[in-house]
Specification:
Distance between the termini: 36 Å
Low-confidence stretches: 7-12
InterPro entries: cNMP-bd_dom, cNMP-bd_dom_sf, RmlC-like_jellyroll
CATH architecture of one domain: Sandwich
Order of helices and strands: HHHEEEEEEHEEHHHHHH
Protein name: cAMP-binding domain of CRP or a regulatory subunit of cAMP-dependent protein kinases
Shape: globular
Strand order of the largest sheet: 1-8-3-6
CATH class of one domain: Mainly Beta
Pfam family, one: cNMP_binding
Number of helices: 10
Keywords: Kinase, Transferase
Helix content: 40-55%
GO molecular function: kinase activity
Length: 205
């Protein structure tokens, strides 16, 4: 199990520094705005295969991934899973639409490995956005970038062959093969694990 507090003892500001670097890459904030934004984030640990958000429950937190890999997935009435998105360091995670709309989630947020987070509760983050319009702008831009990625993925799902979806995955995130168990990657691109193994073997040969 990853010891978050050991990380804090060894490098006190490391997780918050990672958070601030990601924010700066999205939209420049003043040091005062950045410190106010960073002040609402708290450490959180989760074991492997922990369900952090359940369908039907409201997402109460926005997560920042320090270590570990997670996924958001949909489960239909026949218990068929559809993996929608992965999160890993350094990135934001959670069921973002449920969080921002404060409505019940349609999806599950699950850890695939032991995970270390910072997380911010909705009331605290809402208060920071009200105090700092630039923080709200930063979050809006971050969501816009994420939406652009979702639209690109919809094109892949509807127009690409399974082999092309695999190639697009590698072009977008070549390192993901080492991060995410392959059965979840197969589900993500909509192929069975046997075909996914064939794709893997094709790039090794």
């Amino acid at each position: 199990m990853i010891d978050f507090y050991k990380i804090i003892r060894n490098k006190v500001s490391m997780p918050l520094d990672q958070l601030k670097q990601l924010v700066k890459a999205i939209y420049p904030l003043t040091e005062k705005e950045l410190d106010d934004f960073a002040s609402v984030w708290q450490p959180f640990l989760a074991k492997r295969k922990a369900l952090l958000t359940l369908a039907g429950q409201k997402e109460n937190y926005l997560y920042f991934v320090v270590e570990g890999v997670q996924r958001v997935y949909y489960l239909d009435q026949q218990d068929r899973e559809a993996t929608l998105v992965f999160s890993y360091a350094p990135s934001f995670g959670g069921v973002v639409d449920s969080f921002l709309l404060q409505q019940p989630s349609r999806y599950y947020y699950e850890t695939l490995t032991p995970s270390v987070f910072l997380r911010a509760a909705f009331p605290s983050l809402q208060a920071v956005m009200q105090r700092n319009p630039a923080v709200e702008t930063m979050i809006r831009l971050g969501i816009t970038h994420a939406m652009s990625g979702v639209l690109e993925r919809l094109v892949e799902v509807q127009c690409y062959s399974s082999a092309d979806r695999f190639r697009a995955l590698l072009q977008r995130s070549s390192h993901i093969l080492q991060l995410v168990p392959h059965k979840y990657l197969a589900n993500y691109i909509g192929v069975d694990p046997t075909n996914f193994s064939k794709f893997i073997n094709s790039i090794k040969s």
